[in-house]
Design a protein that fits this description.
Number of helices: 21
CATH topology of the largest domain: Aspartate Aminotransferase, domain 2
Strand order of the largest sheet: 2-8-7-6-5-3-4
Structural class: alpha/beta
CATH architecture of the largest domain: 3-Layer(aba) Sandwich
Bound molecules: pyridoxal-5'-phosphate
Helix content: 25-40%
Distance between the termini: 46 Å
Oligomer: single chain
Shape: globular
Low-confidence stretches: 1-23
CATH superfamily of the largest domain: Type I PLP-dependent aspartate aminotransferase-like (Major domain)
Radius of gyration: 22 Å
Mean pLDDT: 91
């Protein structure tokens, strides 16, 4: 079947691995025959790439030529677009990291296989990021970004039937991966009642005798909230008593946007409580704008790290390339960069707050403490976050609505990346957001959004379709700007 207006365009279909000849959903006979069930589980997962709405789906709805947006196949958008969508830092990398790459472009560096990690990089990752020196009980290995840490952790510690506890909403790539291992995702809903973070009592109540793992994503994607030290101690003790492994993802911890907040890596609590059951990860994409080098770290007790280290060696043999390792080492030594980029995040957060204040019906459910990730709640506008995503794309702003992140806020949350180096991008957002709301309130994007979910056919998409079908179009309202 040829691509229709609401289908994915040919070029993007390749990116999403969708098969347009089978209406975007069912995999072809060839794939049905040969693809393993565990991979099919990902293809059909409501949070599998292509099954949730993003600004990319605005392209066919607005009938924009996809090639004009992704001309050379890169993911970076043209300069007149502002990417509030995916979580890569747009604050620019430290100059010293670029210099380190240039300084090491030579045969000696690129010809041999790289080691897992060069020694000074392993040391600084341990002490600076996980705040614990290496010892008999604690070590660090290299992984391909924090995402590599996620994948190896799921593969190493989850068995079929195990339950894994994840917040809802959460980073979109937490829920699909455990399906590959046959594990069962159980979610802990977040909201004002738990201040959009894990409540130790709720963790305790959610644990069953099948619970094997808890993800403590701290700072939390999508809200940027952090757990208190006391909460972390309590969570560590509850999980230890119940034989639950904690996966502590701290990759958003470099930028302290709220000067009053304090982030604590769980591995640093070793003096106060047993943290041998904590495996932690971080990467260089968020804190240092080095997503392309795919550099990350996985840390924990060597007896546990042995499993991901073996998987890495026997399955993928992906060792981080040496140029990336030198760049990471230089970046981690650059405290001035962290201070300067933190100021960029703080400035930008203030600009987003200004834009929200000018946009009737939009609120911030909880203010972020760390990183550059936050949510807007657009419920009061009367339009879904998905329609607003289309309208924002028309204004040159790319965002990701809530169904990428969970059931909670699936049609009312818009996740925002506020790391842009240039202030004008978020200054102009104060005009673009109210204009997009007015545009979406005409209802003209509703059919296009429904068309996307009709084609996706996951449980979540069915629920969202029902929600959208029941919606009455609001009368366009005046915004505070008018
Ligand atoms: C919580 C979380 N973990 C991991 C990642 C992936 O990071 P990396 O680029 O280091 O693989 C992201 C990216 O958005 C994230 O938000």
């Amino acid at each position: 079947m040829a691509a229709t207006k609401n289908d994915l365009s040919e070029g993007l279909a390749f990116f999403w691995r969708k098969d347009l000849h089978s209406d975007g959903k069912e995999v072809s006979d060839l794939a049905q025959r040969f693809v393993a069930n565990r991979a099919k589980a990902l293809i059909y997962h409501h949070q599998g790439l292509g099954n949730y709405f993003t600004y990319r789906h605005a392209i066919p709805i607005l009938e924009v030529d996809a090639k004009s947006i992704f001309a050379d196949g890169k993911l970076k958008l043209p300069d007149d677009y502002t990417d509030l969508g995916y979580m890569w830092s747009q604050a620019g990398p430290p100059q010293c990291a670029l210099d380190a790459i240039r300084a090491h472009v030579d045969e000696e560096t690129v010809a041999p296989y790289p080691p897992d990690l060069i020694a000074p990089l392993r040391e600084i990752a341990a002490t600076q990021k996980f705040k614990r020196p290496r010892s008999r009980d604690f070590d660090v290995m290299g992984v391909e970004g924090a995402q590599g840490g996620i994948g190896y952790t799921f593969l190493s510690f989850l068995d079929p039937g195990d339950e894994i506890l994840i917040t809802d909403p959460s980073y979109m790539h937490f829920a699909p991966g455990p399906q590959v291992e046959g594990a069962v995702v159980k979610s802990i809903p977040l909201g004002p009642h738990n201040r959009f973070r894990l409540d130790p009592d709720e963790v305790k109540a959610a644990i069953t005798n099948r619970t094997k793992m808890l993800i403590v994503c701290d700072p939390l994607n999508p809200f940027g909230t952090v757990q208190s030290r006391d909460e972390l101690l309590e969570i560590a003790r509850i999980c230890r008593r119940n034989n639950v492994l904690i996966f502590n993802n701290i990759t958003h911890a470099t930028h302290q946007t709220n000067p009053k907040a304090t982030h604590t890596p769980m591995s640093s609590l070793y003096r106060d409580t047993d943290v041998d059951h904590v495996v932690a990860t971080t990467g260089m994409s968020k804190g240092y704008a080095l997503a392309s080098i795919r550099m990350g770290f996985l840390a924990g007790h060597p007896h546990l790290l042995k499993a991901p280290a073996m998987l890495k060696m026997e399955v993928t043999k992906i060792h981080n390339n040496m140029l990336g390792q030198y760049a990471a080492l230089a970046a981690l030594n650059d405290q001035d960069y962290v201070a300067a980029s933190t100021q960029v995040m703080r400035r930008n957060l203030a600009l987003v707050k200004k834009a929200v204040a000018k946009s009737d019906g939009v609120t911030i459910p909880v203010e972020p403490d760390y990183g550059f990730c936050m949510c807007l709640d657009v419920e009061g506008t009367g339009v879904s976050a998905q329609e607003l995503t289309v309208a924002l794309f028309k204004q040159g702003y790319c965002a990701i609505p809530g169904d990428a992140l969970g059931e909670v806020g699936a049609t009312r949350f818009l996740r925002i990346n506020y790391s842009q180096k240039e202030a004008w991008r978020l200054e102009k957002f104060a005009d673009a957001l109210p204009a997009a709301i007015r545009d979406a309130q005409t209802g003209k994007y509703l059919e296009g959004v429904k068309g996307f979910y009709r084609q996706v056919k996951t449980d979540r998409s069915t629920r969202i379709q029902q929600e959208l079908a029941a919606r009455k179009l609001p009368k366009p309202r005046a915004t505070a700007a008018e």
